[in-house]
Amino acid sequence: RLDWLITFLLVTSHIKSNDLTVFRLLGYTEKAGDWKVIEQPISAGSGCSVSDICIETFQELKLRKKYKGIIFRIENEKEIVVESTSDEPDFDAFASYISSNYEDKPRYVVYDLEYELPGGEGKRSKIIFFLWNAPGSRIRERTLYTSSKAYLRLKLTGVSSDVQINDFDDFATVKENIINSK
User: What residue stretches are annotated with the ADF-H domain (predicted)?
Assistant: First the structure.
């Protein structure tokens, strides 16, 4: 039986470890007319953990601009690891590399997209997180990557956009939408 209905949630704190993040939520309950503290563990639905190297490599991309892109994979259906990094400054060339080299393998991809604003308003940079759902990949692989995505994404703080890409044409659409969003 549902004793109360949460109408408002506020994340008040969270505790991180390698395998689990616990959010402490403050929820307003309509039935009781008061606030209630709820602790909600969030982990990878697939049971995959995130390697510390993933977070360190992402920080190098974000803070030190050491890389332009990172490709992550799931190893042995247990752990998300860094597969490779890229210095490719051209987003279209990087997208072409992903779609041609991973046409039958899903991957997580992070790219630091730099672009000119229309009207000469200056340069901007946004870090984008992609779930590359390769068109030729097996359903089991796609399901594993999809169910683990939220957990990896939670670990990578500072990402501007989170997008699922299913084919090469989606890359151009995403780039255009980001540039036009200001």
Answer: 45-181
